[in-house]
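Progress against Task 2.4 (sequence-to-structure conversion) is shown through the following example record, which the project officer requested during the mid-term review.
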Amino acid sequence: MLKFDPRSLWAATLLITGGLIGAEPSQGHSACETAAGCRADCTVDFASPVPEATVAVRSALRSLPSPLDQSSDQSPCEIFSANAYGQVAFNFQRLSSPESIAAFYQRQLPQQGYEAVALLQVVGDWGFSLVFELPPGDSLSPRSDEKRVVLVLQGVMLSPDQINVNLRYEEI
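Structure tokens generated for the chain above:
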């Protein structure tokens, strides 16, 4: 009989994610990241040509409000995200709580025309997961008529006072 070893789950998770959190640039992070965060011009060097969806997603993600201090040199990092629409996501870390970051987006995004999907809004001590319908007239089109594009925001606590936040579009 096989025994479950929790260390195996941890090792598999590290293998699957590539150890992205806390990794050196050569281990999966964009070369434009610094210890303080990402430079304002931070972008991933995707192979050419860049798909049209990726260009549209970059623009849409850049237009989203950010709870990061605008006076700092930190900005969300653009990262490759295989499952995301356009395979682009923004990621950042901040000293904050899940409740305060989630509340920021729940307050700011409706002002830009996004509509919260109430069934897919979860906030807890561990982090949060929020899903928003796109504003009317948004140009991000699903690849299939049976699906729609939504904005997904997820936060996971890294320590008692630091959260990692990921923003991306997905087809559901």
